Amino acid sequence: MISQVTIIAPGLLGASLGKALHANQLAERITIWARRAETRLDAADQDWCHNAAETPECAVAGARIVVICTPVEAIAPMVARIAAHLPDDAIVTDVGSTKSLIARVCTQTLQATAATFVGSHPMAGSEKTGMRNADADLFRGKPCLVTPLPETSEPAVRAVVAFWRNLGMEVASLNPEKHDEIVAHVSHLPHVLASVLSAQLGTRDASWRHFSGNGLADTTRIAAGSPALWKSILEQNREEVLRALDGFDTELQSLRSALANEDWFTVLNLLERGKAFRDKLTPVRRDGGPEHTP
Amino acid sequence: MISQVTIIAPGLLGASLGKALHANQLAERITIWARRAETRLDAADQDWCHNAAETPECAVAGARIVVICTPVEAIAPMVARIAAHLPDDAIVTDVGSTKSLIARVCTQTLQATAATFVGSHPMAGSEKTGMRNADADLFRGKPCLVTPLPETSEPAVRAVVAFWRNLGMEVASLNPEKHDEIVAHVSHLPHVLASVLSAQLGTRDASWRHFSGNGLADTTRIAAGSPALWKSILEQNREEVLRALDGFDTELQSLRSALANEDWFTVLNLLERGKAFRDKLTPVRRDGGPEHTP
Fold first, then answer.
1. Co-location of B135 and B193 in the same domain
2. What is the ipTM of this complex?
């Protein structure tokens, strides 16, 4: 059992984490800090929350593990803010969906302390947000990527891997650059395409949407996500997203040429390759519920 | 009540049509023809099917309305095959998801006869296929586009509009070129993008798919559709699909430049426009069941 877990900025993910730690008796004490006083009061009312601190500096006092659940652009500033207040040997992790920049900056920030940063990306977000949608089972069966740097202390990495695994997650460890390359392709690129398609159709006659079906609805569903949140993700992972876009563009231009030249062999081949990939996508999380993080 | 409806090639749509006509007592007699003898035998066993003819020429004898339910590339050849055997004043329609080429060729084919062609696109397909998934309620509440040419006889158009409306469909009438432009954007373009994204991801490390979530699963779902069927649709609607791709590409390149130049105002604006369109997509057919035709 972990003596104290501190959750900074408990929204859907952070509050679900608190509930899950409590339900599985994994932490003796759970402390939170939230920017809004109302959220702190709400949290203090819940059975999983033992202490809602007034400041992040106070919240990390006594913590064995600190989990930063802010939007991606606020993670490194928060680590800088709490650095001097962390107990010796504390481990700081996060739930951000980009990792390269965060891992580098936060590791550097904590170099002068006896605490360690180990980045995490639990892939258990939802289109729902906020503490009131929190769910103790949010993490169960979902993938979690833990992204140490080469110099990160082994025991700290093992502790973070165990932390998520104890919540039922399927944990893999890989370097932050590889993480960002993968999510640029399997998460950020699909989001960008859904947004571009939706934005483009938004320039057309408004009546057209009445003639669309579930195909368009599914293809564009993630475009309904928060623009501010996604802008931050694209900012943090700009270079990898650009590379993923280039790969997509090469394939798209090849299909476009094939259509223009009536090269139906190439068109059919692309449709078949697309089907082959889609048919193999494991439906592990097709439970009708949560979707991919952010 | 219609004296006789003949359904050529009853798969999911055609057999659902037979069931729906029977359940709503809209036809005195329903005759079918299917290419495979086994399908003809299966149909003959069902209470909605009064006659499973041995040839399409025999199947149309006595028909008031003939509905061609073959894949799009086989519709015009089938109309040519049955033309000389159609009763006077018979109306021929179809369920194809492209309309321009089909309406032009089929109208010309029937010019020498006393029968009339009026194209239809009931948007009530599903990823399920075949007679055994047929559902008498498949059409209820879904859109249907009826696509007469300027010279098509008014009474025939009214009869086809009434035919689909009596099955509970929301029928709109528009010219075949406009139909093809709209579906190129709201159906064929999303399909192409889902296929290109899937094909592209299929070239990457096979382990990556384990790190994806419901976002990718939804965005690529339609890429699992039949490559042969979709190749035919792209063949029939090639020019409009190319135009829709151009519009998409303009928007994509503008986002790409904004990302490359760190022009976050433009990125945020595009994400916001995408969300605005998606938020307004009417969830009329989000019943977890059928999707867009084909």
1. no
2. 0.86
